[in-house]
Design goal:
Elements: H1 2-14, H2 19-30, E1 46-55, E2 58-68, H3 72-80, E3 83-86, E4 89-92, H4 93-101, H5 105-113, E5 118-127, E6 130-138
Antiparallel strand pairs: 1-2, 1-6, 3-4, 5-6
Helix pairs in contact: 1-2, 2-3, 3-5
Length: 139
């Protein structure tokens, strides 16, 4: 838990999350977890959210978050509000996912709570010269 707390503080320091979001993450980290594992089985450690936007030959990473799995609920709520620019228009990631892939971040959160692992979302949308790729991975 100490390593995760240091990672959260580093995210606040780097400006990747606000101090308020950092406090929420630290509070979530302190929350008790339940569920026993079979011998030799390990829990997933991180939820990774990536959004890549490619326009012509240029690609940029719009969202790149690696959040401890204990903070999955807070991580997905943060990702839900992430904004990307598409065709000169700023849109909210959760709205984009619903429009393009029918993906609901609340459903993803429920899957994580139920123990889902691996790539949960892999959406590619091409529109003219712009391609947006969204991935959510639990590992």
């Amino acid at each position: 838990m100490e390593q995760e707390a240091l990672e959260i503080l580093e995210m606040v320091k780097d400006g990747r999350v606000s101090p308020e979001q950092g406090a929420q993450l630290l509070d979530a980290l302190k929350a008790p977890t339940s569920g026993a594992l079979a011998p030799g089985q390990s829990r997933p450690q991180f939820i990774r959210v990536r959004v890549h936007v490619q326009e012509g030959d240029r690609e940029k990473v719009a969202v790149n978050s690696n959040i401890p799995i204990a903070l999955a609920e807070v991580a997905l709520k943060m990702a839900e509000g992430a904004k990307i620019t598409r065709d000169g228009e700023t849109i909210v990631l959760s709205d984009f996912l619903k429009q393009m892939g029918g993906v609901n971040l609340a459903d993803i959160l429920q899957m994580v709570r139920e123990g889902a692992e691996g790539k949960l979302v892999d959406v590619d949308v091409a529109d003219g010269e712009q391609t947006i790729k969204v991935e959510v991975v639990v590992d």
